Amino acid sequence: MTIDRRKFLISTGAVSAGAAFGLRPGPARAQTTLTGVTYLPPSYEDLAFGSQGFVDYVNEKHGDAVKIDFYDSGRLLSADEQLPALRSGNIDFMFHTTSYITRSLPILGIMGLPGVVGPLYENPDRLKRGSPLFELMNQELGKQGITALSFGGGIMEPEIIWSTGAPGIRDLEDIGGKRVRVVSFEATKAIEDFGGAAVRIPSSELYLALQRGTVDAAVATVSTINGRSIQEQVKQVLRIPVTAFAIGIFVKTDRWEAMDEGARSALTEAAEWFDTHSAKAANEDYYKKQYWPKFEALGMDVIEPDQAMLDRFAEVSVNVREAWIADVGEEVGNKAIDLAMGKAS
Fold first, then answer.
1. What is the pTM of this model?
2. What is the spatial distance between Cα 191 and Cα 201, in angstroms, rounded to a whole number?
3. Which secondary structure element, helix H or strand E, spans residue 251, and what is its range?
4. Per DSSP, what are the bridge partners of residue 34?
């Protein structure tokens, strides 16, 4: 189905307004139709595996109860438009990279904290549905009327530093004076603490930003590099885990609670599938087995940090964690970090 973004926003806004003034919709249908979005294009095969798999699971296994109209590639909403549209009720659910929305939903920052992302990546069960950390995050999201159905069963391989030119960024001290693309608040703080200039650039604009010299380097995941063909612009990568993200499925809490039992059951079952397969498939089947071998075959210079570099990064990044704790509150922040690090249960 083809849909015009402007007409969609106008028409759904009218529907929301009608509901607000008590105007009743037409007769209920047996099948519930839900609108879901993601700004990511299918070229992100690693991430699309989970999102499209979720949609297909619902439509194929529960088509009698619910049908999903799904729009990828920002065809309906851009990355920055998704959360406002969810909150206003213009869409029913969204897939979103958590790093894009940590300023609006700060509890999600736990999945991007330097010094935390390493242990969280190595222990994905700490983020699975029903885990203490998952429940804590949903408690905090609930204060803003948002519910997460899943974070894909873990974070994606952490974001690292990809740079152009020679010698590029080969050490933490090389960050000073460089313009570095970031997305999340956590990455911004980390780059600034090492003297770099953080520039927020969406992945869709990153290729040209590197090509034109708008930025010298990028904090990005291997998924972004492959999905946007950034390997054509960068020459080396420093594998220091700066930050990370998960792909979350988000719904508006009151919309979720108002759904009929058949629709909720279908989405819950699909979310369990997503939780089991999404991050695992991306990290193992795509990154380790496909993307990294391809980059290395192209001659990309891969710099592995030694322990001294990792220790130095952790030392400086304490400021990032302290800023995040101040943002979410000391009790919640410390509890979330302990759960992510395996120090509490």
1. 0.86
2. 14
3. strand 247-252
4. 68
Tell the residue number behind the tokens 């509150």, with chain if given. 329
How many domains is the chain built from? 2
Domain housing 314:
159-244+300-324
Residues 147 and 119 in one domain: yes
Whether residues 180 and 202 fall in one domain: yes
Q: Can you read off the two tokens belonging to residue 42?
A: 């299918």
- pLDDT tens-digit map of 50-103: 999 999 999 999 999 999 999 999 999 999 999 999 999 999 999 999 999 999
Residue 339 lies in a domain: no
3-state DSSP call for residue 332? helix
Q: How many CA atoms within 13 Å lie on the side-chain side of 8? A: 20
Within-domain flag for 295: no
131 & 165 share domain: no
Q: Which residue reads 């009327």 in tokens?
A: 145
Torsion of CA 193, 283, 224, 217, to 10 degrees: 30
